[in-house]
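Why do we bother with holo predictions? Because pocket geometry can differ from the apo form. Keep that in mind while you read this record for adenosine-5'-triphosphate.
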Amino acid sequence: MLEVTGLNQYYGGSHILRDVKLTVPDGKLTVLLGRNGVGKTTLLRCLMGTVQAKSGSIAWRDTPLTKLPTYARVAQGLAYVPQGRDIFPRLTVEENLLVGAASKKAPSKIPDKIYELFPVLKDMRARRGGDLSGGQQQQLAIGRALMSDPQLLILDEPTEGIQPSIIQDIGRTLRQLVEEMGLTVLLVEQYYDFAKAIADSYWVMSRGEIIAGGEGANMDADGVRTLIAV
Ligand SMILES: Nc1ncnc2c1ncn2[C@@H]1O[C@H](COP(=O)(O)OP(=O)(O)OP(=O)(O)O)[C@@H](O)[C@H]1O
Ligand SMILES: [Mg+2]
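The structure, written out:
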């Protein structure tokens, strides 16, 4: 599992993450919910090592990650789909996917499983990333993350600004990754109904602190919707 303890992070004088403690069990889909600006993305950046946490520890399957650079965390099996997708608009779909395999030796071919998960990417493989719709770009960003053959897939608000039919597809794909391919998924979300429909377990963050957590099936009973309502 992923184990985070005592994580603290600051931007200047602002205390953004406050003693964050959470676990993400192996082979399950865990959702982290929280309102705008509570520190969700900052936490994910600390997990990936693009921001160095001020204090605390992060371990994946008993390997301490806290002092490792981002590329070494990718080599340990972590992959990241950033908020806003960050695809390369002038590269083709296929080139965008190959960027995700840059840590592997001699990446040249897209594995069939990527195109099976996202048939639209196969149809559009020669098109520029920037020509895709928002939903297609999100699928591309997920496909790119899968190119490093991860064990732990971390996604930051993949439903943001995306049409409902593609949100459904993305939800199904994430469940498929967990159930059929054995991946562990950590998903940051603000869209409650989507989160509830696919979560095995959940955490809620407020002002840099974890304030609740439990089983996905109990989210309604635990009043999670109210905790994240704007
Ligand atoms: N590079 C930065 N420098 C200074 N402050 C920052 C920086 N990045 C984020 N912040 C601030 O830190 C706080 C947490 O931001 P963060 O992006 O982690 O929140 P979030 O929960 O992901 O929000 P959202 O739901 O809008 O994506 C916010 O108050 C934000 O304004
Ligand atoms: Mg964010």
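The first strand starts at residue 2 and ends at 11.
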